Task: inverse folding
């Protein structure tokens, strides 16, 4: 029977030859991720189930990302409790402050997510794992605890929707622009809710893993159950030095059934911006040229990767961030931080007047490191712009790509990165 | 109990998970009674006090698209509503993460399209769990909903997924989950 990649993964990891959308299956999970602010609850819930040992301690991945470095004594205490419990289970893969990164970045870059397998995490952007051909899914404490004990998780097999992406990427146009374009195109009409969103086509093949992560990451914000891109030679090369386990190539069958198929040609796609409060209220950058803002931010599990800072360094090389703009950049992991230092990107950014912070979710989680205050207008390369998401409810958040943030930061107003030769 | 009746609160805009449970409670222990005291505090000013939402005595919530969206895997949104006496939420669509959490707690999150357009806060509703029919007793309108899947009903009957799994670990049938 013809199946999509998501259906195959659900079938093969539940000991079946095939599945159909709507079917309820208990799957074997490859890895379970939890992090600082829910992790302790996960271990406590696990203990309450009556099982003494984890299903596989090498496949329970623990990360400190939301609360590091701790901004308050209360969070510092919570982190201490979190460390105690992780230590007590002798978890080998514990990415704590000093080795930290945003959980989803860590899961992919450290090889804890593999093509054809299912990984779950207690944070909504676990969809990111689809970038390397895995089913990545966000779950709560209950599901995490049960998977920690049994290695299993229940799923309703989703219908699949295909986005076939063709054409040539134009200079200064990024995967983020496609993400936001799709957001605006689909709106919150409910069409993608609970579905598997599969990106494919020549323009996807052309993307590196970083861009694929951006795309899959934001499928959760379209309401999708998962976002996925079939593994290819790039995936293989990316994973080879880091992968924790073996995997095989997997792809949708040519005659697999889709709930819908959309065609998008990126040749005509330009920089895109989501206006404050509603993710699906997206417009081409041209419509907002000249809009003033006072805060700029690039980081997060959506856009905190080396490629993102590389494009910003190209734009900001020898330039200065406008005096009315406070700009923060946060690399998504220590590995990215180091790479950006070694490649000179952060030297350029610091000289331009950008504050670089240590890897964490930062203000995107609305907790610390540059949260928005009353009246702030923020230009962000993060993933959510609802009222209050990044701090004050009386702040406005425009979402866009790192290229738009960098070009705009120089002028202090929204600028098309294609308008100058950087 | 196949029929539930009670008063509804109707959402006029998106309801976000991070407003249902405001930041200072994101890390609180999961406890229906405790979580209910401040549930919905960030959704409307009138709910922003201790028992602010709970004291209205609503039985149902009616909402449009993407109920409990905006990320946040916290389960307090669901346990808080349960502790506040909410017996079912009807929405055009749910953010899937909280839909999943609701399923795991045996809390009915029921998909019923555009009900929010034909209901007002304070309306008296009657929900028939068996056939999925919802009557607005205040204005006489009737709505249909997607019936609860067998697995969801089974989990609810067990008192939530944790109890469901505990029983299976205890009797050794956990390996049969398929």
Result:
């Amino acid at each position: 029977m013809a199946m999509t990649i998501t259906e195959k993964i659900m079938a093969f990891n539940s000991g079946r030859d095939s599945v159909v959308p709507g079917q309820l299956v208990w799957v074997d999970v490859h890895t379970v991720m939890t992090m600082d602010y829910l992790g302790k609850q996960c271990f406590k819930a696990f203990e309450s189930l009556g099982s003494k040992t984890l299903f596989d301690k090498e496949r329970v991945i623990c990360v400190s990302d939301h609360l590091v470095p701790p901004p308050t004594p209360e969070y510092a205490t919570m982190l201490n409790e979190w460390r105690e419990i992780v230590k007590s289970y002798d978890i080998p893969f514990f990415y704590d402050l000093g080795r930290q990164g945003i959980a989803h970045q860590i899961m992919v870059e450290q090889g804890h997510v593999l093509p054809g397998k299912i990984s779950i995490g207690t944070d909504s952007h676990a969809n990111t794992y689809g970038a390397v051909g895995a089913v990545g899914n966000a779950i709560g404490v209950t599901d995490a605890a049960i998977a920690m004990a049994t290695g299993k998780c229940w799923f309703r097999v989703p219908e699949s929707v295909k986005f076939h992406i063709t054409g040539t990427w134009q200079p200064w146009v990024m995967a983020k622009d496609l993400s936001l374009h799709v957001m605006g195109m689909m709106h919150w009409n409910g069409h993608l809710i609970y579905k598997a969103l599969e990106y494919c086509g020549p323009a996807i093949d052309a993307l590196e893993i970083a861009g694929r992560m951006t795309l899959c990451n934001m499928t959760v914000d379209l309401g999708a159950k998962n976002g996925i891109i079939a593994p290819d030679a790039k995936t293989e090369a990316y994973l080879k030095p880091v992968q924790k386990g073996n995997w095989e190539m997997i792809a949708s069958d040519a005659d697999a059934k889709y709930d819908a198929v959309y065609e998008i040609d990126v040749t005509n796609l330009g920089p895109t911006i989501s206006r404050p409060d509603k993710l699906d209220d997206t417009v081409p950058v041209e419509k907002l040229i000249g809009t003033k803002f006072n805060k700029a931010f690039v980081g997060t599990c959506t856009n905190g990767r080396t490629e993102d800072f590389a494009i910003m360094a190209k734009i900001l090389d020898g330039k200065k961030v406008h005096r009315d703009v406070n700009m923060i950049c946060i690399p998504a992991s220590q590995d990215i931080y180091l790479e950006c230092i070694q490649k000179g990107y952060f030297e350029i950014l610091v000289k331009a007047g950008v504050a670089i912070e240590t890897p964490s979710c930062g203000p995107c989680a609305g907790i610390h490191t540059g949260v928005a205050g009353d009246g702030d207008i923020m230009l962000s390369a993060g993933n959510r712009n609802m009222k209050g998401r990044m701090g004050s409810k009386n702040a406005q958040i425009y979402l866009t790509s790192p290229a738009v943030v960098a070009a705009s930061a120089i002028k202090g107003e929204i600028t098309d990165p294609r308008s100058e030769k950087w | 109990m196949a029929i539930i009746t009670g008063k509804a609160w109707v959402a006029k805009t998106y309801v976000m998970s991070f407003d249902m449970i405001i930041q200072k409670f994101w890390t609180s222990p999961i406890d229906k009674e405790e979580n209910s005291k401040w549930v919905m505090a960030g959704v409307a000013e009138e709910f922003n006090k201790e028992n602010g939402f709970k004291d209205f005595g609503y039985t149902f919530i009616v909402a449009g698209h993407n109920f409990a969206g905006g990320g946040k895997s916290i389960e307090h949104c669901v346990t808080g509503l349960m502790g506040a006496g909410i017996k079912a939420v009807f929405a055009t669509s749910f953010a899937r993460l909280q839909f999943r959490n609701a399923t795991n707690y045996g809390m009915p999150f029921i998909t019923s399209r555009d009900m929010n357009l034909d209901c007002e806060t304070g309306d008296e509703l009657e929900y028939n769990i068996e056939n999925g029919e919802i009557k607005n007793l205040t204005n006489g309108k009737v709505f249909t909903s997607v019936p609860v899947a067998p697995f969801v009903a089974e989990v609810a009957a067990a008192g939530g997924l944790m109890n469901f799994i505990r029983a299976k670990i205890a009797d050794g049938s956990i390996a049969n989950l398929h």
